[in-house]
Each structure stands twice: as C-alpha cells, then as structure tokens.
Design goal:
The protein contains 14 helices and 23 strands. It has helices at 22-32, 48-60, 87-91, 98-107, 126-134, 172-182, 198-209, 241-253, 269-277, 315-323, 343-348, 392-404, 414-418, 424-430; strands spanning 2-7, 13-17, 39-42, 63-67, 70-74, 109-113, 138-139, 152-156, 164-166, 188-192, 213-215, 221-225, 234-236, 257-261, 281-284, 288-292, 301-303, 329-332, 352-361, 367-377, 386-388, 408-412, 434-439. It has a four-stranded mixed β-sheet. The chain folds into two domains: 2-18 and 239-439, UDP-n-acetylglucosamine1-carboxyvinyl-transferase, Chain (Alpha-beta prism), CATH 3.65.10.10; 22-236, UDP-n-acetylglucosamine1-carboxyvinyl-transferase, Chain (Alpha-beta prism). The longest helix has 13 residues, at 48-60. By secondary structure, the chain is of the alpha+beta class. The chain is 30% helix and 25% strand. It starts with a strand and ends with a strand. The structure holds uridine-diphosphate-2(N-acetylglucosaminyl) butyric acid.
Length: 441
C-alpha cells in the first residue's frame, strides 16, 4: 500500500501552476456528450476522478482520447442500452449524477444508481429532482428514498420543456444538472438561487462555446434559451480554485513564500482575506497570488458558505493552519453536516480541537447527529504522526499538517487525495518539501 512520507518544517518556496479545476471538468465531460460532433478540452487534470469519468463515457459508447491534459470526446456512438453498463462506476463517485441531466437530454430516459462520493454527512439530491420535475421529467421518488437498500434514479419524459426553477439552496450539482437538462429543452428556463461557483460558470461557458444560449452564470439567476442542437468545440478548463487555495494555505502553514500562477485571483478572495486576517502577507496581480507565511498567526473565525463565501472544500486545510496559530479559532461548517472527521487525525499530531455536535433533521425529516462547528485551540505547532486521509480534502489537510509538523508524518489513504490533486507529492517537492510516496508492501 502506498503512503506519503513527509519530514516537516521545511518552508515551501517557489512558483507553481495548478491544473484545471476538477469540479469544472467533471461537469464539462458530461456536457460534451450533448454535442453532435467531437470536442477538444485542454487543461484537464490527470486525476483518478477524471479517469473514472472517462471509463464511464467509454462504456456508454463515446470515443475518448486523453493525452497531456488534452481530452477529445466524440459522443456520436453513445447508445441508451449502454447505460446499464456503468452502474458500479456511478455508485462510486458524486459527479456521476451529471449523467442524469445529460442523458435525459439525449434519450429522455435514465435509470441509474444514486451517486457515491466523499462521506461528508447527508447529501440529498432533492434539488436535482425538483429541477428535472419542473422540466417535465417523471421521477419515481420511492426508489430514491434512503429506506431503499439499492436506491436508483429512474426518470423519463416525452420531452424537456423550459421552466422556472427556484432552488431552496444554492447547489453546485443541482445548478449544473439543471443546465445540462435545459440547454436543449423547448423554450426558456430560469434558474433562481443558482450556485455561483467558478466551476459552475466554467461549465456554462463550455456549453455556450458549444452553441448553448445561457446568460447570468456567476449570478444567482441564470437564463437558458433551449437550442435545437449543440456542436463540439475547443475549450480550456479554468484553473482549480480549491487546488490554488490548498497551496496558499500550505505556504502559510510552513512559513513559506509561494506564488501560484496562471489563475484568477478573485476566485480566492475569501481565502486571501482569512489568511491576511491571520497575519500572512498576500499580494496578487492579474493572474497570480503570492503568499508569504508569517508568525505568530492570529486566531480567526471561518464560516463556510457558497461562493463567494469561504469554500467548504478548504475548511479542512484551514483547520490545520488554525492549530498553528497562537490564538483560538472557530470553524462553522454551514454546507455539510459532517466534515470534521479529519480533526481526530490532527489530535494525534498534538492538536487540541473540540467538535460540537447537535441534533438536526435531514432531508427526509429524520433526526441526525450533525457536526456543524469546531473550536481549534491555537497550540502553535504540530508533531509528526501516522495519520489517515479519510476523504479528498481531508487528505490535502493531512499533507499540509505533515509539511508543517516537527518530525516525520506518514499519511495513508492517499487514493482519496489522488482523486482530486494531480501529483501533489511532486508539486510540494518542487517547492522544496521533503516528501515522497513510499510503497509499504
Ligand atoms: N443539497 C441538498 N439537496 C440537493 C443538493 C444539495 O440539500 O439536492 C445540499 C447539500 O447536502 C449541501 C449543500 O446543498 O448541504 C451544497 O451541496 P452542493 O450540491 O453544492 O454540493 P455537491 O454538488 O454535492 C459540489 C462539489 C463538492 C463541494 C460542493 C460545495 C463536485 C463534484 N462536488 O458538491 O466538492 O464540496 O459542491 O461547494 O462538484 C470536493 O471537491 O472535495 C467536493 C466535495
């Protein structure tokens, strides 16, 4: 079994470029199958989630080539009878649910398992269902219920018809799925309270490059005028906001000096603000951000929010930095009901963290035990330990903890990290870290 071995406390120094955004690419790949001709997509990250999606598209019948971050997708031979071949792949990743929207547009009928993905607590799909219903799709809600041992999404319609859709909360997944199901619907669709994340905008931009008529992406109201057909296009995926933030926090955690290039700095405004509040120096230009880590670090309060708020995907790395402060900090996790499992690993490294649990109602009005906030005592330093990465962003947090800790840290469960970070070990090594992957078999 491969693990990451880190000898910590070396300040990270230098420049790096990050790859294209995972969560944009995972919406763009299913969007590409709506075209009548092939698309060429550049800056696609070479990570296991993308490889997994490519496997699903190939099993559906698409022609796919992936070389040097350039992905060519020819959707012309996708067939509805192939949908049943991807059940296992669908179950093991979250973004597989974009195939519901895309395949409804293509075939007006989809039967597929519910998606898997990181265990972050309750992750219902009621807003996706609401959007599909509004567009005219009949969905058997019993089959989606948590009571089912093998829940499935079973939807069909005669045609998709434009509609007004008001989301009860801004959901990245539901917004992208509504885009995929409405781009070729008859008439106009309005999405209200839509998600505004950079990856949502990137998927909309890709669809527009294919000939879709979409305005307002990046605001909370998106207008889609259905078109008859979409053509393949050439596109380059936007730089990954979450990877950029991960490297920024790692620079601060190691008292380093790191410049991330080829990016849109505004995507990181909330992160920049918090890193500055803690006492770090941040400067930026048109397409770069430089982080110089400082000591002592002050305590801060972080509330995760939909974009442009502080991203939930960076709260775990931020939790590590809070441990290194001289004052106490608080995190309020408003997006997911259980994203503090990683704190147990940090406690093994000398952290002092208290997670506050409360009772909440889930989407089906059942009581659940939710973890919505945590207090991070500023202990100033961490010490190396054997720790486990139990989801993707927790894994990135564990690596940052190892980079900042005194002594040796060994991180297992690195397959989670490889789902979303391309060569994280090589990237940190290029910045001067003492880090390597070791096969412990
Ligand atoms: N929600 C509902 N009903 C729905 C959909 C969402 O109640 O029908 C709730 C969720 O339970 C959550 C909130 O709405 O409380 C936001 O969820 P959202 O739908 O925005 O999340 P997602 O689409 O499941 C994507 C990313 C996540 C990222 C979140 C939030 C992808 C493939 N995943 O998930 O990324 O944390 O948005 O920004 O885009 C990651 O990359 O590590 C990751 C987990």
């Amino acid at each position: 079994m491969e693990k990451i071995v880190i000898n910590g406390t070396k300040p990270l120094k230098g420049e790096l470029y990050v790859t294209g955004a995972k969560n944009a690419a995972l919406g763009i790949l299913p969007a590409a199958i709506l075209a009548d001709s092939p698309s060429v997509i550049d800056n696609v990250p070479d990570i296991s989630d993308i490889q997994h999606y490519i496997t699903m598209l190939r099993k559906l019948g698409a022609g796919v080539r992936f070389e040097n971050h350039r992905l060519t997708i020819d959707p012309r031979s996708i067939r509805p009878e192939n949908i049943r071949n991807i059940d296992e792949e669908v179950k093991s990743m979250r973004a597989s649910y974009y195939l519901y929207g895309a395949l409804l547009t293509l075939f007006k009928k989809v039967t597929m398992p519910l998606p898997g993905g990181c265990n972050l607590g309750d992750r219902p799909i009621d807003q996706h269902v609401k959007a599909f219903n509004a567009l005219g799709v009949d969905i058997d809600k019993e089959k989606i219920s948590k009571e089912e041992t093998n829940p499935i999404f079973d939807g069909h319609c005669d045609k998709l018809t434009g509609a007004d859709i008001y989301f009860d909360l801004p959901s990245v997944g539901a917004t992208i799925n509504a885009l995929l199901a409405s781009v070729k619907a008859e008439g106009v669709t309005m999405l209200y309270n839509a998600a505004k994340e950079p990856h949502v905008v990137d998927v909309a931009n890709f669809l527009v490059a294919m000939g879709a008529r979409i305005t307002g992406a990046g605001t909370d109201t998106i207008k889609i005028r259905g078109v008859e057909s979409l053509n393949g296009c050439e596109y380059s995926v936007v730089a990954d906001q979450i990877c950029i933030g991960t490297y920024m926090i790692a620079a601060a955690a190691t008292e380093g000096d790191v410049t991330v290039k080829g990016i849109i700095p505004e995507h990181l405004d909330s992160v920049t603000a918090k890193l500055r509040e803690m006492g770090n120096d941040i400067t930026s230009g048109d397409d770069w951000i430089r982080v110089v880590g400082k000591r002592p670090l002050k305590g801060v309060t972080v509330r995760t929010k939909p974009y442009p708020g502080f991203p939930t995907d960076l709260q775990q790395p931020m939790g590590v930095l809070m441990c290194l402060a001289d004052e106490d900090s608080e995190i309020y996790e408003t997006i997911f009901t259980d994203r503090f499992q990683y704190t147990e690993q940090l406690i093994k490294m000398g952290a002092d963290i208290r997670v506050h649990r409360t009772k909440e109602m889930d989407g089906e009005q059942k009581e659940i035990d939710a973890a919505r906030s945590a207090t991070f005592r500023g202990v100033g330093k961490l010490k190396g330990a054997e720790i486990l990465s139990n989801d993707l962003r927790a894994g990135a947090a564990m690596v940052i903890a190892g980079l900042a800790a005194e002594g040796q840290t060994i991180v297992s469960g690195i397959e989670h990290i490889e789902r979303g970070y391309e060569d994280i070990v090589g990237s940190f090594r290029a910045l001067g870290a003492d880090i390597k992957k070791v096969d412990f078999n």
